[in-house]
Amino acid sequence: MKVGKLLTTILAVSLALPMCACKPKSKDESKVSSKESSTAVSSSESETDTVPSSDPTDPTEPTSGPTVPSSVTDESEDPLVIYGYEKDFSKDFSEYLKDIDYEYVYVEPEQYIQQLKSAFSSEKKPDLFMMSADYLPNFTDSDYSIGIEQVGIGSSDLADQFEYTYKAATNKDHSIKALAYDLSPTALIYNRYLADKLLGSAEPSLVTAKLSDWDSFMEQAREVSMNTEGIIKLLADRQQLGRLFWAGRNTSWVTDGKVTIDAEFDKYFSLQEKLFNDTLTLEFEEGSEEWERAINDGQCVLFFGSLKKASQVIGYVPGHEEKQPEPTETTATGETSETTKPEETGWSIVPAPTASYDGGTWLMVASSCDRKATAAKILKIMTMDESVMTDMAVKGRFVNSRSIMQKCAQDPNFASDFLAGQNPYVVLVAEAERIVIPDDQAVQKCAEGEINKLFTAYINGEIETMDEVKQQFIIGMEELLGLS
After folding, report:
1. pLDDT category, 113, cuts 50, 70, 90?
2. Cα 173 to Cα 156: distance, rounded to the nearest angstrom
3. CA-CA to 174 of 20 to 30 Å: which in 11, 226, 290, 482?
4. What is the dihedral of CA 398, 347, 189, 186, to 10 degrees?
5. Mean pLDDT, residues 342-366
6. pTM of the entire structure?
7. Residue range 336-365: average pLDDT?
8. What are phi and psi of 49, to 5 degrees?
9. Distance CA 192, CA 422 (A)
10. Rounded to a whole number, what is the distance in angstroms from the first to the last CA of the chain?
11. Distances 471 to 266, 365, 453 between C-alpha atoms, Å
């Protein structure tokens, strides 16, 4: 899908500003030094049949955090050092960071965390660094990063950002330690041909109704496997379902100093046990070659993922595609009203039973930063500047602006032929709005780790009863949390 030469009327009138670019200076090896600048300096569950609101003040603003200093200055004139694991960072964003002296230190993703930690004791200490969703909680609760308030950015500046992005980076002292510029909310992505044959329809509105909750999901998983004699499954792996199941939880595992277990614990074990015992998935590991092959070869009907994952797995290319203006109407599921095909082909997306995200990129200010004013400028450019984020959205990024992404959801030029005429942002913006972040992410992470370990022992016969599973869970959590 090519990038449009012009924004549609909706985006152009309200957001588009002239963009200019300068080529960065470059260094050899894995480091790139650039001089660049900007051209300007609690979500509630959404109804799946409603177009996202265009009002960017729907969710409550972030609660007040630590005090923001009245002024922030740089303590050094050296180039700001940015560590990251995205190889094309300099190429992609050189046009956005003009008039800022910075040196980008690229590290291979597999080595990134180790080398980043080592950098804090090296001569080339980081001022700013990228962080992935997987490691964000670890660095949020560490001394490697400082809160955005220390560089002059307050919670009131974040009203247009998706709530989950800054809540995921908030520590126990209510300090926001990172801001996201590239988001990955997930949806349920399905094969239209298989859905038409095995679910009874390929239309998003009807598929949504059949997969709206986990009980309905299980029913369809049984029917697909039974009707194809086990040749085709609804889902390629159980792990994905497990990750999504806990994504919507915000109930504490600890009450008055004691570990508690509720009905969701039993439901999860029952769900996973049925999937395993009845062989309702292919038991492939998410992201493996077998997993990707099963999706592309039609061995399973669907998978859960973001547009970025869809681009990696099935070749989807997100972005803005100029089309001739036509009197079309975008429905609440992102379909264009005129789209009908004699034979269902391709892919479509619908909301998952639980809203979640499978990635994203955050920027954190390092505790070693001696150019706080410049670091703040970069954070504002990448996560608050309308012209910059509009340009990134047109090029296919899901940016951290509710108002811009809502406009993308209303823009017919984001309708995708790959998705049979759907505008994916109609679904994904609503999903991003309803993502829940646990109040205590560390405890939730511990709980999920214990649950996965105990379930493996349970299905392998090492633990015989659910009562014993629950006892082991309580003991394990007490040890991990220091409650015993």
Report:
1. very high
2. 17
3. 482
4. 0
5. 91
6. 0.83
7. 82
8. -105, 25
9. 12
10. 57
11. 13, 42, 14
The answer, yes or no, to whether residue 165 has pLDDT greater than 80, is yes
Contact yes or no for 371/78 (Cβ under 8 A): yes
Handedness of CA 120, 122, 127, 130 (dihedral sign): negative
Q: Please state, in angstroms and rounded to a whole number, the distance separating the CA atoms of residues 217 and 229.
A: 18
What distance in Å separates the CA atoms of residue 56 and residue 406, rounded to the nearest whole number? 9
Q: Which range has the worst mean pLDDT, 90-104, 162-176, 314-328, 441-455?
A: 314-328
Whether the pLDDT of residue 376 is over 60: the answer is yes
Tell me yes or no: is domain 9-184+357-433 CATH 3.30.420.40.
no
Q: CA-CA distances (angstroms) from residue 346 to 182, 203, 398?
A: 26, 12, 22
Instruction: State whether residue 185 is helix, strand or coil.
Output: strand
Cβ atoms within 10 A of the Cβ of 256, count? 5
Gap between the Cα atoms of 33 and 104, Å rounded: 6
Sequence ranges of the domains in the chain: 9-184+357-433, 238-280+440-484
Four-residue CA torsion sign, 182, 187, 193, 194: positive
Q: How far apart are CA 448 and CA 462, in angstroms?
A: 19
DSSP string, 346-362: SEEEE--SS--EEEEEE
What is the per-residue DSSP string for 119-166?
HTTSSS--SEEEEETTTHHHHHTSTTEE-GGGGT--GGGGTTS-HHHH
165 against 335, higher pLDDT = 165
Q: To which residue do tokens 């200019």 refer?
A: 20
- Produce one character per residue of 127-157: b if its CB has 16 or more CB atoms within 10 Å, e if not: bbbbbbbeebbebbeeebbbbbbbbbbebeb
> Do the Cβ atoms of 248 and 436 come closer than 8 Å?
yes
Over its C-alpha atoms, the chain yields an Rg (Å, rounded) of: 23
d(CA 309, CA 414) in angstroms, rounded, equals 18
Kindly tell me if the per-residue pLDDT of 32 is higher than 50. Answer: no
Taking the CA atoms of 469, 474, 477 and 478 in sequence, report the sign of the dihedral they define.
negative
Nearest-angstrom CA–CA distance, 135 and 168: 11
Q: Which residue has the tokens 């051209």?
A: 39
The pLDDT value given to residue 268:
96
Which tokens go with 34? 């650039």
Model confidence over 180-228: pLDDT tens digits?
999 999 999 999 999 999 999 999 999 999 999 999 999 999 999 999 9
